[in-house]
Amino acid sequence: MAPPFLLSFLYPRPPPRLSLIRSCLRTISTTRPLRQEEKANPDIVYSASAITAPPQPQGPSQGTSSVLLTYHVNRTPSQQLPVYHLAKRGGNLKQTRIRKISGDVASLRQDLQQALGLREEHIVINQLTKHIIIKGWKKTEVAKFLQEKRF
After folding, report:
1. Strands across the sheet with 93-98, in order?
2. Residues 67-110: pLDDT tens digits?
3. Model-level pTM?
4. C-alpha of 100 from chain center
5. 84 has which bridge partners?
6. Cβ proximity of 97 and 131 under 8 Å
7. At 54, is the secondary structure helix, strand, or coil?
8. Among 97, 102, 104, which Cα is nearest to 82's?
9. Dihedral sign (CA 54, 58, 59, 61)
10. Measured between alpha carbons, how far is 88 from 80 in angstroms, rounded to an integer?
């Protein structure tokens, strides 16, 4: 009888996490579909701006911005936003931490700073962990901002 580790391919794999499925679907939905003339004649050369431009919505906008975001905040396995309150130095230092950020963290920091009306020194990026740390307890304001951006 063969050792069980050699037959590991026979065991079923768990289904992928929802965050992986969402990121794949987001990548698929942001790619530009081929036009009829591109399918008919693949030798046509288009400019780089035409290729990278996101498709314009056909219907009326529902309050969503048409700007393509350069960052994404993944949700936790329990489908909550990764925004946490921290109390340090015996509870005298109150902070808010945003985790699970992918993409341009500086752009998210700038958008948060403008939306919450914070000074530049009150919102900091930890480059090692890619977390954003905000001075004070701002969990509800940050969660509202992220929900408006449809994260």
Report:
1. 83-88, 93-98, 131-135, 123-126
2. 688 999 999 999 999 999 999 999 999 999 999 999 999 999 99
3. 0.56
4. 8
5. 97
6. yes
7. coil
8. 97
9. positive
10. 23
